[in-house]
Structure formats: C-alpha cells, structure tokens
Amino acid sequence: MSSFLHQLPKVELHLHIEGTLEPELMFELARRNEVTLPFDSVEAVRAAYDFEDLQSFLDLYYQGMNVLFTEADFYDLTWAYLTRCQANNVVHTELFFDPQAHLSRGVALSTQLEGITRACQDAEREMGISSAIILSFLRDMTEEHALETYEAALAYREHFIGIGLDSAEVGNPPEKFARVFDRAREDGFHLVAHAGEEGPASYIRSALDTLGVERIDHGIRCLDDEALVETLIARRIPLTVCPLSNVYLKTVPDMTGHPLPAMIERGLCVTINSDDPAYFGGYMNANYEAVQNAFAFSRDTWVLLTRNAIEAAFVTPARREALY
Ligand code: HPA
Ligand code: ZN
C-alpha cells in the first residue's frame, strides 16, 4: 500500500511556500543575506517546532521567513519545494504566498512574485509539474492593508490566479475582508479562504456567504453544523484538509481522532494537502502515510481523494482531463 500511495499522482491545493522553508535552507539564506538567526543549529530549529496552537506556529513561521530577501531567495525556496513535489509525485500544485509578510520587511512584490514564478516555470519545463500562485492576505491585519496590497499586486496580475486568507483565525472572521474579495471577484480571480481550522463552523458559512469563496482551506470544524455540511455537499465545495498540520497544531487530539473519515463518509469533497510541510513533519507522501496508518483506507478511497483534488483544481479543462 505504501508504494501505491507514493506512486499515486497527486494534486496539492493547500501549500504555503514560506512553510516549505527547511532549516538547512534557512541557514544558507541567513548566511547569504548576513542575517543572524536566533538558533545555533539546524537541530535547534527543528527542536523548536513543538507547537501548542496556530499562533505558536505562526510566531516561528514569520520569524523563519525573515531570511528571504532577493528574487534568488524566493526562487531557491520555490525550486526546493518543487523538487519535493517531483519526489512525492505531485503533478499539479497551487501555492499560497503571504505578500504582506514580506512587504513589511521591505521586500518588493515584484521580487517575491518573480522569484516564485520563475521557479514554477522552470519546474513546468523541466519536470512537467503544473502550478499556480494564490496571493494570501493576513487576516490579523486590517482590510485596508489587504486592499492596498491587492491594488499593488494588480500590476503583476498575470503572476497569480486567485486570493486567499490565512494567519490567526479566531477573532478575524471572513466578513472582515468582504470588500477585497468583492474587488477580486469583479476582476475575475479565484477566491479561497482558510476557515474552520481553529475558528468555528460559522466562519466557514461566512466565507461562503460573505466572501463567495470557491474552496474552503481546512474546514475541519464543518461537522459541528449539520446545515452547513448539507450546503457544502449540495454545492460541492472542496475542503483542502491538512492532516499533519492539524495534528501538529493540536486542532485534533491525534490522527486517529481526525474527522477526515467522517467527512469522507458524509460525501464532502475532501482533499489532502501538506500546508507547511517543513514545520509539520513532511510533504504529501508523509501526509498520505500518516492518514493511512491511522485509518487504513481502501485504494478506492485514495482514488476518490485524488479525483476530488483534480476536480477542485483551478486548471483549464484540457489540463484537468490530462490529470484524470
Ligand atoms: N493556518 C493559518 N495561517 C497559516 C497557516 C495555517 O495553517 N500556514 C501559514 N499561514
Ligand atoms: Zn494553510
């Protein structure tokens, strides 16, 4: 079964490129950019990855990305992730990046987007991996800041296909960003949002109703609201679930306590993704293995999860056909 899972072609729809920064590359970029890290070894960095909740992870995640400055840094980060995709047989990936977290450190949008895009183009040409970029707003910042960032990003609109919402969820409900999502919808972008990771099911409802998102990132709290589950099923809204992330951030007690089987059983359009694999114990194959160790799914279930991801991907009809 393990070799079946490794060889299964995969589609990843929930991945923060900054969350793929492995400690080894963190040290290399720190040296290159003459940044002093608050850790004296790669092992010390890994030892610090013992999270209590989403915020305790975010503190280290924002600190880690402080080594990224140049176009080459963003290229190297993204290229390293895409080589992991090849090793995990990920054939299509949609990746988030957090423009505000770099703008606030003085890194221009063009630097960020050009480095990420160039690596994606090289991966398509050299490894046949297709990809797309989603610009994600930090929900613990103001809507005005998100709007300003969105307007600045329009100068590079050919580089990204959609917008999303991430960072500290509780206390920052989706409706806070209604205007920026309205703008992006008018401009023809795809819309997604993290909701129901640590926050309540009502945030998932709000992401659907006030932001009009096409997919929900995480969404594991949906089972708390039966009417919401029925809406998600009827509208076939994909949920980009991240099993190892949920275990590492203690949003579930352990993998065997994850609602994934119940979500699949209900007929929700569930997909499996790695979120921040450098921080949460591994990439797509590691997520598939951890899920399989806990639930011993049949091959049919794995094929169903993969088909869900192909259905949920923001690709052309021709690319979707090729993925099936
Ligand atoms: N949740 C919210 N924000 C994030 C995450 C996450 O898992 N990863 C990076 N930003
Ligand atoms: Zn995420």
From TrEMBL:
Positions bound to Zn(2+): H14, H16, H194, D275
GO cellular component, one term: cytosol
Co-factor binding comment: Binds 1 zinc ion per subunit.
GO molecular function terms listed in the Swiss-Prot or TrEMBL record: adenine deaminase activity; zinc ion binding
Signal peptide feature range: none
Site entry (Important for catalytic activity), positions: H218
Positions annotated to bind substrate: D276
Catalytic residues in the record: E197 (proton donor)
Cofactors demanded by this protein: Zn(2+)
Keyword terms of this UniProt record: Hydrolase, Metal-binding, Nucleotide metabolism, Zinc
Superkingdom of the source species: Bacteria
SUPFAM superfamilies to which the protein is assigned, alphabetical: Metallo-dependent hydrolases
Occurrences of domain Adenosine deaminase (ranges): 9-324
Annotated EC: 3.5.4.2
Reaction(s) this enzyme catalyzes, per UniProt: adenine + H2O + H(+) = hypoxanthine + NH4(+)
Gene Ontology biological-process entries: adenine catabolic process; hypoxanthine salvage; nucleotide metabolic process
The protein's enzyme class: hydrolase
Coiled coil: none
Family: Belongs to the metallo-dependent hydrolases superfamily. Adenosine and AMP deaminases family. Adenine deaminase type 2 subfamily.
NCBIfam families: aden_deam (TIGR01430), PRK09358.1-6 (NF006850)
Annotated function: Catalyzes the hydrolytic deamination of adenine to hypoxanthine. Plays an important role in the purine salvage pathway and in nitrogen catabolism.
The protein's name in its UniProt record: Adenine deaminase
Organism: Larsenimonas rhizosphaerae
